[in-house]
Amino acid sequence: MSTTSALCHKGVGIVAPPSETYEEHPMKKLTLSALVIIASSAAASAALAQDAAAGKSSFNKCLACHAIGEGAKNKVGPQLNGIDGRKSGTAEGYSYSDANKNSGITWNEAQFKEYIKDPKAKVPGTKMAFAGIKGEKEINDLWAFISQYDKDGKTK
User: Fold this and answer.
1) Has residue 152 been placed in a domain?
2) Are 123 and 37 in contact (CB under 8 A)?
3) Is residue 136 one of the residues assigned to a domain?
4) Residue 78 placed within a domain
5) In the chain, helix, strand, coil percent, each to 5?
6) In Å, what is the CA distance from 39 to each residue of 25, 31, 34, 44, 45?
């Protein structure tokens, strides 16, 4: 009697051969990981570009008073080049209100987003006569657009 028959006869059952495991080649895993990272980066860049493009359209509301980009000059409001990291009230050649000069604000994403919703509430006494932008997407898009400019008006 064979070993298998003997085991079956005794109620043990058939013992299956050990299962084979498939091991992927390490280079294949590395290549797949790299492709996922590249695709994710491209998608994030595209989303930022779309936001900045939408923000450029939103910036049209600001153009009557503000300029941005190479050659931007102060108008009714200060030029906005390099706003990310700039202290409020410090754009060269612009005459700020005392409220703005003394606000203690250093512009960053969070400060800007709070300010642009209601400038007079954030800085009581500001000269900025603007009702604000309420929509979160529009605010995000506007920040994506203006924050891409360095202090010289070049895109980062």
Assistant:
1) no
2) no
3) yes
4) yes
5) 45, 5, 50
6) 22, 12, 9, 9, 10
Q: Which residue has the tokens 């360095």?
A: 150
Number of domains composing the chain: 1
Residue 140's alpha-carbon distances to 54, 91, 146, in angstroms, are 9, 23, 10
Say which CATH number the domain at 68 has.
1.10.760.10
Q: At residue 49, does pLDDT exceed 90?
A: no
pTM of the model: 0.68
Q: Is the pLDDT of residue 51 over 60?
A: yes
- pLDDT given for residue 34 in this prediction: 55
What's the chain's average pLDDT? 83
Name the residue range of residue 128's domain: 51-146
pLDDT exceeds 80 at position 80: yes
Compute the radius of gyration of the chain from its Cα atoms: 30
The alpha carbon of 78 is separated from its chain's Cα centroid by a whole number of angstroms, namely 24
Average pLDDT over residues 28-48: 55
Answer whether residue 33 is part of any domain: no
